[in-house]
Design brief:
6-stranded parallel beta sheet; Rossmann fold; 17 helices; elongated; binds 3-phosphoglyceric acid; alpha/beta
């Protein structure tokens, strides 16, 4: 056990039906329906291979997107094809989640065989906003369709989906009420790495926050500042723009309009309040960039033309941040400094990412955009730790116990009933 949760070293899976929840949620090209990345699929391979090698009858459960927020809500068939290729062994797929066809396919599995079920979010209770709309207890989640239909067929539940560990949904938190449970290798690696860095971060500990997950970012800032975890927070992207506007600095009407349109206007006041309390540790950009007629322009904060919108931090800010990153012993980063996908607005992100690669400090990076930037600049090998989770990492760093961690601790106490062969 690690952190009160069983690992794969604590369970015997030979000949057992193992339900394994993975996070292989990937960006999808809307026109072709093809996966744009296979990062997370690749990251799950060690657990899947180990379970199959050890003779489990392996049933994989996964979500792909959601119809609420991201419009990338698809079947998991392409994921099975990618897994088949990565593993070099067949991963069967079925267009059913927990109906009679899925259950029959599970019953027919032989030792070592792998079956991926269709998108668990096709079962309505699994929708992304489930936790916020209905907020069922884990006991109640165990009584919903998915656990009720699948748990009776299984001996063990394994969660390898750290990237979804902040979601309070039956496929993630319901099974641990019924089945003996354990975490997979990826979950173990991610959870243990971020836990140990959080417990005793080497100082100075610098957080870099950009990107657009605003509510989570503000909650996290509050926690890491009030608990003394962060020595400094460097801000970029929308996070920085919200601070600057909240403090009354002029950064172009376009910046304000975008934030208001995105529904984040309430954060202007929150940012100003946070800055009043912890301004000595929050670093804001001194200059910003915008694009005019396709060309990058830069100026000091407060001197930006009214009709423009900030799309990146400026060169002076990038240099200041670079020096701070080089002097840090621990760096957490979530979110780019601007619109790094476009040449005219990628300078800040590129500089910061290069500094992350150059620093001797330990770097922990998470979130889809951050991973995309790392790949774009070819720096994957030079990062300390790349977490598959974005939202989960932020939520974890906010100091909250993740729902899946809580559920796994519960499931780790349930004995391996069928033959009592717990190692
Ligand atoms: C993610 O992409 O962060 C995880 O797969 C969780 O997905 P969700 O945000 O749609 O719940």
């Amino acid at each position: 056990m690690r952190f009160g949760i069983r690992t794969l070293d604590d369970v015997d899976v030979q000949g057992k039906v193992v339900l394994c929840r993975v996070d292989i949620n990937q960006p999808v090209d809307r026109e072709s329906g093809k996966l744009k990345s296979i990062n997370r699929i690749r990251a799950c391979v060690p657990t899947i291979r180990e379970l199959s090698d050890k003779g489990a009858k392996l049933v994989l459960m996964a979500h792909q997107g959601s119809d609420i927020e991201y419009q990338n809500f698809y079947a998991t068939k392409p994921h099975a094809e990618v897994l088949t290729e990565l593993l070099g062994r067949k991963v069967n797929w079925i267009d059913d989640v927990c109906g009679p066809a899925a259950r029959e396919a599970i019953r027919s599995l032989k030792d070592g065989e792998i079956l991926l079920l269709d998108n668990v979010r096709f079962v309505a209770e699994e929708q992304t906003l489930f936790e916020r709309k209905l907020c069922l207890s884990h006991e109640a989640q165990a009584k919903t369709l998915l656990p009720q239909k699948l748990a009776p067929l299984a001996d063990l539940y394994i969660c390898d989906a750290f990237a979804a560990a902040h979601r309070d949904q039956p496929s993630l938190c319901g099974f641990e009420q019924i089945l003996p449970s354990a975490m997979g290798r990826l979950f173990e690696k991610e959870y243990c790495t971020v836990s140990s860095v959080m417990e005793e971060p080497k100082r100075p500990c610098v957080f870099i926050l950009g990107g657009a997950k605003i509510a989570d970012a503000f909650e996290m800032m509050n926690t890491v500042l009030s608990r003394g975890i962060a020595d400094t927070i460097l801000t970029g992207g929308l996070v920085a723009n919200i601070f600057l506007i909240g403090l009354g600095r002029a950064i172009g009407e376009g910046s304000r309009a975008f934030i208001e349109k995105s529904g984040y206007a309430e954060f202007f006041e929150k940012a100003a309040e946070l800055y009043r309390r912890y301004g000595d540790r929050i670093v804001l950009p001194q200059d910003l960039a915008w694009v005019q007629d396709g060309k990058r322009q830069e100026t000091s904060v407060g001197e930006m033309p009214e009709d423009c919108a900030a799309v990146d931090i400026g060169c002076k800010t990038a240099e200041d941040y670079r020096q701070r990153i080089l002097g840090a012993k621990t760096v957490f980063i979530n979110g780019p400094m601007g619109v790094f996908e476009k040449t005219a607005s990628e300078y800040g992100t590129k500089m910061i990412w290069q500094a992350l690669a150059d620093t001797a400090g330990f770097t922990v990076l998470g979130g889809g955009d951050s991973i995309a930037a790392t790949e774009k600049y070819g720096l994957t090998e030079q990062m300390g730790y790349i977490c598959t989770g974005g939202g989960a990492l932020i939520r974890f760093l906010s100091g909250e116990e993740l729902p899946v961690v809580r559920a796994l601790k519960h499931g780790s106490q349930i004995p391996m009933e069928k033959d009592g062969k717990e190692k």
